[in-house]
Design a protein that fits this description.
Blueprint: H1 2-15, E1 38-45, H2 52-55, H3 58-71, E2 79-86, H4 91-104, E3 109-111, H5 116-120, H6 123-128, E4 133-136, E5 152-154, H7 159-173, E6 179-184, H8 187-200, E7 205-209, H9 217-225, E8 230-234, H10 237-249, E9 255-258, H11 265-272, E10 283-286, H12 297-309, H13 317-336, H14 342-351, E11 374-381, E12 384-393, E13 402-404
Parallel strand pairs: 1-2, 1-3, 3-4, 4-5, 6-7, 6-8, 8-9
Antiparallel strand pairs: 10-11, 11-12, 12-13
Helix pairs in contact: 1-10, 3-12, 3-13, 7-8, 10-11, 13-14
């Protein structure tokens, strides 16, 4: 991470201008991680390393929401304990920490493990050990394989869905422009590009990066040489900032259209520092209420929780994301019932019917383990993201990109989803 920060600082200075059966029976007393008074769950997160910028805020926000629920009696009288382990966004480390949580700590479930390259490597292990694998923090299509991985469920809109929605905007609002692509060299980048090219056809130029090499100079140089007018980015926040800063350094300022996972304005502004003005006009997308929308009742709830249980951490879209995950998990626990088992947890997700802060519906069913169904476009203006247009939903195949006119449900008066 230090190397990434050093390179970025130099760039910006120059730019200055099975579904998881319980083990041993049907009752919670025999279910790993569950007692009459507690539930132990775990997660792997990039608290340090190349993806830590912004993402390191997610799990503390989720824990803060659990602490809020615990202070109000927990779920069926059980207190939620959230074990957060740093994997530095390194797949080998992810495997180590997940093995520890499952085999030594005996967690009930893994929640919101973050990262496409990192989480992909633990899918088979979690399946073999019959551990529920809920709400993965990535839009890879790998999470939506109910037959192969019956205990794994996504949360984010998948990257192909997002690619189709962003590309539809480019096709209609930036028609005739030469469109190019820079993406992470894994399923994140590949799935995003698949959605983009389904709508636009082949892009004019495409480049990729690996998170272990914080130098995108050659890639941005190639995109400039290709005379790209629109650059679509499938990037984590640190590399969104690197791409935009590096482009400015070489006098290359196309219209950027960015994946939601790399577009949190607070994180990008902090990372770019004095060069944050380069973000003006960046188009992205989201599916949760924006942190800056203080009139939204979900934002009001999450701000309250953040102040009381998250040490007053800076409130941004990463915090909103983390608390939204926490809310959905508590909703799932409520739906699973008092006699908690791993089977009942995954069955509750497959039953679906969840409501929450999302701008679009959740897809969950026994045949669909993906998360949110679409997104709405945002634009960065004056350091803040604002929604524009309407929300859209689509699929990761040949389905149309269609407007969605529904609205999010209001949060419960006490901020905690009721038992179902």
């Amino acid at each position: 991470m230090k190397r990434t920060a050093t390179v970025l600082a130099a760039v910006l200075l120059a730019a200055g201008c099975s579904s998881g059966n319980s083990s041993g029976g049907g009752g919670s007393s025999s279910t790993p991680g569950v007692t009459d008074s507690s539930i132990l769950i775990g997660t792997h997160q990039p608290l340090t390393g190349p993806a830590a910028a912004g993402y390191s805020e997610i799990s503390p926000a989720t824990k803060a929401y659990f602490d809020f629920v615990n202070a109000n009696g927990g779920v069926y009288g059980r207190q939620i304990t959230y074990k957060i382990m740093d994997d530095t966004y390194n797949p080998a480390t992810t495997q180590q920490v997940v093995r520890q949580m499952v085999l030594q700590d005996k967690v009930f479930a893994i929640l919101n493990g973050l990262g496409t390259p990192t989480h992909t490597g633990v899918l088979d292990f979690l399946k073999t050990n019959r551990v529920p694998d809920l709400f993965v923090a990535s839009g890879s299509r790998s999470w939506n394989q109910p037959d192969k991985y019956p205990g794994t469920f996504g949360f984010n809109p998948d990257y192909t869905v997002e690619g189709k929605i962003l590309a539809t905007y480019v096709k209609t609002s930036l028609a005739g422009k030469k469109v190019c692509f820079l993406g992470q060299d894994d399923d994140f980048g590949r799935d995003s590009l698949a959605g983009i090219e389904q709508i636009l056809g082949p892009v004019a130029a495409k480049q990729s990066y690996v998170t272990s090499n914080p130098n995108v100079g050659p890639q941005m140089g190639a995109l400039k040489a290709a005379a790209c007018q629109v650059v679509m980015l499938a990037t984590v926040p640190g590399f969104t900032a690197l791409a935009i800063g590096t482009g400015a350094k070489i006098g290359f300022k196309p219209q950027y259209v960015v994946s939601n996972v790399g577009a949190d304005p607070t994180t990008l502004t902090k990372t770019l520092g004095p060069a944050a003005g380069l973000l003006e006009g960046v188009v992205a997308a989201n599916y949760l209420p924006l942190a800056s929308d203080t009139s939204n009742p979900w934002i009001q709830l999450f701000q309250k929780v953040n102040t009381q249980y998250n040490k007053g951490a800076q409130f941004d879209d990463n915090v909103v994301y983390g608390m939204s995950v926490g809310y959905l998990f508590v909703q799932t626990l409520q739906a699973a019932g008092k006699d908690l088992t791993r089977d009942k947890l995954t069955a509750a997700v497959e039953k679906g019917g969840f409501t929450g802060p999302g701008m679009v519906p959740l897809r969950f069913s026994d045949k669909d383990h993906s998360g949110y169904a679409g997104e709405q476009l945002t634009k960065l203006v004056g350091g803040k993201s604002t929604y524009f247009g309407t929300a859209f939903q689509t699929d990761d195949a040949a389905g149309p990109v269609s407007p969605y006119s529904g609205t999010a449900a209001a949060p419960p008066a006490n901020g905690i989803p009721p038992a179902q």
